[in-house]
Specification:
The chain is mainly alpha-helical and 145 residues long. It has a 3-stranded antiparallel β-sheet. Strand 1 and strand 2 form a beta hairpin. Helix 1 packs parallel to helix 4, helix 2 packs antiparallel against helix 4 and helix 4 runs antiparallel to helix 5. It is globular.
């Protein structure tokens, strides 16, 4: 159990730290563009594709409650926490980084914009880590069956 806690804490804090430092670059004025991809500062008031932006300031509290529920669930389901400690650390670290943005900047700091052939949603490193962690959870589930 101690090993799982360390794995969780290190992956959580690592993703949080990396994501916040990347966002600091953009908050300090960094931007770059090419034909297919642009790195440009955007503040997203909603979630993916700006959904639920009508919730305004309440969205950050809803997300905080949801992360709290996941934390409580993992507290009572220790075998799940142990099995998935690394991807859960990634998932919750990235999610908390985005929620931290909401409290600090009024929305999530996004900066990667794909516009080659079609316009895609603007996203950030934490969003990628959330997707990656979910894929990792599916992979671990598949491999252990």
């Amino acid at each position: 159990m101690i090993k799982a806690i360390w794995i969780f804490v290190l992956s959580f804090s690592g993703i949080f730290f990396i994501d916040q430092n990347i966002k600091a670059l953009f908050l300090n004025g960094f931007s770059w563009s090419s034909e297919c991809i642009s790195f440009i500062l955007t503040v997203n008031k909603g979630i993916a594709f700006s959904m639920f932006s009508f919730l305004g300031k309440n969205l950050k509290y809803i997300q905080l409650i949801l992360i709290g529920i996941v934390g409580l669930y993992l507290f009572f389901k220790k075998e799940i926490f142990i099995k998935y400690s690394f991807p859960l650390g990634l998932l919750l670290g990235a999610g908390c980084s985005n929620i931290y943005d909401r409290f600090l900047h009024g929305g999530v700091i996004d900066y990667v914009y794909w516009h080659c052939g079609f316009n895609f949603a603007i996203f950030n490193f934490a969003d990628v880590m959330i997707d990656f962690s979910i894929l990792l959870i599916f992979y671990i589930s598949y491999k252990t069956k």
